[in-house]
Amino acid sequence: MFKHIIARTPASSLVDGLTSSHLGKPDFARALEQHNAYIRALQTCDVDITLLPPDERFPDSVFVEDPVLCTSRCAIITRPGAESRRGETAIIEQTIQRFYPGKVERIEAPGTVEAGDIMMVGEHFYIGESARTNAEGARQMIALLEKHGFTGSVVRLEKVLHLKTGLAYLEHGNLLAAGEFISKPEFQHLNIVEIPEEEAYAANCIWVNERVIMPAGYPRTRQKIADLGYRVIEVDTSEYRKIDGGVSCMSLRF
Ligand code: CIR
């Protein structure tokens, strides 16, 4: 079970967030409304929520998942691969120190890691080696996880931004997978729920205490998740999709 959520209100500079999509710029007013609805959805999940203030200097700082990995035993401050995002670690560190006194680790140069590339399955952490997380960052991350009694392994990704862009672990052995991840040998021991290509964006969901929060507008995925017995909560993330963000990116859950 998760007890804590950390999120950050988007800054209006969000409209200049990094993107690989051709969906146009986000509408800030809508993005703000969608963020409010996302927080309201989390409020129904038996967690306490820390909402950090916006920081205009960092357009992508609403995506708090990337600068820190929060586990049940330690927090690991990452070193984002995107240079414009590197300063996001400093603006969240004080909050993390409060939740993890004496248990904060960090990734050092030349390693880079964005925690959107990390998926927890029980005591094991899959680390995506991506355009943002390099081999040295993954190596350091695994060493730090092992120091705290966890295990880790590397998954190479070719097409998507982050590991969790195309994967979501919903506990109980259930793994949502899209595109390049459906056939990866390292996940075949799990119950792979295939997300159809036209709904690939919906592979990015979050499990929060037996609820699954997912993006609105993906009916086939919704049905598949509901068929597994979860309570499904849909939230509209259209403005975040325009800058490659989804429901997992907008919170830390621990
Ligand atoms: C970026 O490119 O870094 C942001 N525009 C999107 C980050 C999404 N984060 C995530 O998947 N964990």
What does this molecule look like?
The protein has 254 residues and is an alpha/beta fold. The chain has one domain (4-253): L-arginine/glycine Amidinotransferase, Chain A, CATH 3.75.10.10. The protein has 5 helices and 15 strands. The strands form 5 sheets. Strands 2-1-15 form a 3-stranded mixed β-sheet, with no helix packed on it. A 3-stranded mixed β-sheet has the order 3-4-5, with helices on one face. α2 (90-99) links the parallel β4 (75-77) and β5. The chain starts with a strand and ends with a strand. The model has no long low-confidence stretch (mean pLDDT 97). Residues 17-19, 60, 63, 65-66, 82, 85, 116, 161-162, 164-165, 243-245, 248-249 line the site of citrulline. Residues 17-19, 60, 63, 65-66, 82, 85, 116, 161-162, 164-165, 243-245, 248-249 line the site of citrulline (CIR).
Bound molecules: citrulline
Stretches where pLDDT is under 50 for at least 5 consecutive residues are none
Please identify, by name, the CATH architecture: 5-stranded Propeller
Distance between the termini: 8 Å
CATH classification class = Alpha Beta
* Count of separate DSSP helical elements: 5
From the spread of the alpha carbons, the general shape counts as: globular
Q: How helix-rich are the residues, as a percent range? A: 10-25%
Number of domains: 1
Tags for this model:
dimethylargininase activity; three-stranded mixed β-sheet; 5 helices; alpha/beta; binds citrulline; 15 strands; L-arginine/glycine Amidinotransferase, Chain A
